[in-house]
Amino acid sequence: KSLSERDKAVIWHPYTQMQTAPAPIGIVRGEGALLFDENGNSYLDATSSWWVNIHGHAHPYITEKIAEQAAKLHHVIFAGYTHEPAVELAEKLLPVLPGSQQKLFYSDNGSTAVEVALKMTIQYWQNKGQVKTRILAFRNAYHGDTFGAMSVSARSVFTRAFDEYLFDVTFLDVPAPDNLEALKAAIDTHASDTAAFIFEPLVQGSGGMVMYDTACFDALLQHCRAHGILLIADEVMTGFGRTGTNFAMEQVQTPPDMITLSKGLTGGTIAMGVTTCTNEIYHAFLSTDKLKTLFHGHSYTANPLTCAIALASLELFLQPACRQERERINARHRAFAVELAYHPDVKNVRSLGTILAFEIVTGEADSYTNDLAGFLFKFFREKRVMLRPLGNTLYILPPYCITDEQLTEVYDSIYEMLAKYQE
Ligand code: PMP
Q1: Dihedrals φ, ψ of 275, to 5°?
Q2: Are residues 311 and 330 in the same domain?
């Protein structure tokens, strides 16, 4: 039996229970921007496998570091014990983050990094003896699949079955010149009991690669900060070079109080999340009163293998060569965006850093399961180019090692799709 057939008998995949969903493709190997199936076919990973493989697949340096750490220590409980990879990673990562990030808390993925940030901000105010319970978030946001993360995310097909179990959040539209003053006024109304504002900086990923006006976004953050509202920058998608700078928050003046990271953190190897914060936040938890402790910890918190991988990935990421690759992709994306904007079936072509996104004119923006999405999924699967639609939005978010020839192949496949999608 093939891997796909054996899989179908025993595995429940994300989002693919629909009877019409095709069997998953069995992948046996990865190299650079390519993945190979059990029959030797190659697939061009144009979305870095859910935006994680920033250095491509099976990078030799990361493989070497995995082996090195595996020979020493696989795991140790992180309450009361520590180890070199966890400390070194925090020492190297905190100074390159925007704002004054001075403490780092380890968790398991993007959703748990968000949970930790929410729990920290809520308890921060309690520890300081102040009643601040309201959380602000953007209306179209996506911050993860766990209950806290779903609560601060858009109410959508993803949350529908659970909406009544989610906590109340005050949602704001993304900022633009024509709504900025209204947004500021809404914040003024709620300022006295607002604990924190959580947001995806510069661009909403799962919400359809929605890019905001940077100046308006910064003004909104500045307004929150003036009211003492804690700012949580969810850089799970934007972090590690996606938006043109190392971290998206480098492009605004207002510093975040906390940052959540995952995805590119381990370069597409083993899942891990981190939540970073200022000493101001951390110090509110330091006390002889045990009840001021943050009661949160995962069995695999700061797993040494994962930390060693993140460290190797960070080293690669901070090399000038990696920045040059990102600049190369950005230049190619921008040139393609100019060309693509002339296509009659395309609208809202946008690019930022290594992200390129556009909408197909006839598609429904808000439906995950519309016919167009089904067609796009099937078309690119057959072309062996890994591109997935978000509603009627298609985006490219490649690993930084993608070659110029491979980028051309992705762009060409988009033109080919546009010639066929109405047939
Ligand atoms: N925050 C953002 C901005 C994300 O894009 C995602 C995942 N798409 C998450 C949080 C959740 O991360 P994970 O899937 O690792 O739980």
Answers
A1: -120, 125
A2: no
